[in-house]
Design goal:
flat; two-stranded antiparallel ribbon
Length: about 220
């Protein structure tokens, strides 16, 4: 069974952001269809923005699926072993997931950092420090999305006062370290839950999960 976490600020932020992404993608796509079919026009930046929003949705959805236990789980083998062995296997599995998430977070930061005029990490596998010298790329822009007026302050911070004609890439690419950080956070949550004995696996098959939920509900009624 997957841990049932209480609603926290991060939980609500994650869910609300996913809902906003879905709603915005739908509105932009609908508006573009109306513009093309009704007015023989086109929202030039609409396609690029939708692609970025979809990327945000997929990457943030990975950590959200871990939270909800929505990833595919095959538990035929672990159901055959004793509870102590099952717990050990779960700890090994979640340790591998945490290590993989750390690698993803390092790669995501290293790719995004220069676009935000920040140093990438040193070290091939795990961070051993930050680069002393790096090429700042805060001036890189996307292809079509215009730079919003309320973000004009970014020109002084990231582009030496030069005007942006399009949105700087550091904004849409920020989802890379954000999503990988959330993914790491979710796996650490599961690791703690396995360690204290709250759960005995990372992801259960949905049939087993439903059965365990029913069993816990009955236990609560009998308590």
């Amino acid at each position: 069974m997957h841990p049932k976490q209480g609603e926290t600020f991060i939980d609500r932020l994650e869910e609300n952001l996913i809902a906003i992404l879905l709603g915005t993608m739908t509105l932009i796509t609908f508006a573009n269809v109306i513009a093309r079919k009704g007015f023989n026009s086109n929202i030039l930046w609409g396609l690029e923005l939708t692609v970025f929003l979809f990327g945000w949705l997929v990457l943030l959805g990975a950590s959200y699926a871990v939270k909800k236990g929505a990833h595919l789980g095959v538990d035929a083998i672990i159901n055959m072993v004793s509870p102590p062995v099952r717990r050990v296997l779960a700890l090994i599995s979640v340790a591998i997931c945490i290590m993989f998430s750390l690698l993803l977070l390092k790669g995501a930061w290293d790719y995004w950092a220069n676009f935000a005029n920040l140093p990438a990490t040193e070290g091939r596998w795990f961070p051993t420090g930050f680069e002393d010298k790096f090429l700042a790329k805060g001036w890189y822009e996307v292809d079509d999305i215009p730079h919003p007026a309320f973000l004009k302050w970014m020109e002084d911070v990231f582009n030496e006062g030069e005007s942006y004609s399009k949105m700087p890439r550091l904004i849409p690419y920020a989802v890379l370290p954000l999503s990988m950080g959330l993914l790491l956070y979710r796996f650490i949550q599961i690791a703690v839950a396995v360690w204290i004995g709250k759960v005995d696996r990372i992801v259960a098959s949905h049939e087993v999960e439903d059965d365990l939920d029913d069993l816990h509900a009955q236990s609560g009624e009998n308590a």
